[in-house]
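Next comes one such specimen:
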Amino acid sequence: MRRSGGGAAAGANRHRAGRPLRLTRRGRYVFGGLSAAILALVAFLPGRGAIYSTGSFGAPAAAGAVATIHVVGFGDSVPSGYACGCQPFLPMYADMIHRQSRRNTVWTNFAASGQVSGGVLAQLQTPAVVDAVRRAGIVLIMVGANDFVPPFAQVTSNPKATSQFATVGQTLRSNMISIIGRIHELTGPTTRVVVLGYWNVLEDGRAAAHDYNATQRAATVLATDTANQALRTASVMGHAVFVPTLELFHGTKDNRDPSTLLAADGDHPNVAGHQAIAAALAAAVPAEPAPLIRPTTDPAHH
């Protein structure tokens, strides 16, 4: 992947030293009006310090009807919906699944700002998360960006810090293989595990052109390439679906300014960005056709 860095302007060398990166951000859960059918909740798990959001589309299935689809998500500030003031892509996707299948769809989002890949692996050991995953038909994972924040923070004073990206990528790949394996261990063979790639693991577009110098912008490209390669490889090895987002934000020829899909911080999607990700997910991982329910007959009565 080659990327220009988003049009370096005269102020591109003025990096805001105090600008917070994803690693320092904490959960901010906001819910917009996607549909009157949705019930959004924020729950605290006593004794575990975990916060998650959940909701549903459609009426609960009656006894004997086609089963409810459960969508569970994990990840960092992007899937948590940080800086958007909107529903993030996970409930948007769940709504699309509901409309495709006409089945009740329940979503649970365990994503949290600042999350790293090792943190998701730890989440998958907690009872409430285990219970949710065991019911899931689709599990979405978007994590890994924050893994690259510590070495990237050193780039300003030491451009050679990018040499650390390869090691971070290896750890991310290993953690993601373990995450996918743990999910498969908890679920049946029909559960689909979906790993999302990144358009940029740090700032992008006009914000990056303003906040990063040329060395830093080049470092974001290398970090993003390394992260996406690790995530794609882990997906193949773990028999998961990999859904890239690079072309969504940068175009098929890598010539589009992604700023129109990003919040003002240049780091997180805005409403349009979340909608684009949800649509890509719905295209790549559509709702499975509802199984036909046929009445059983006793051959002895023929």
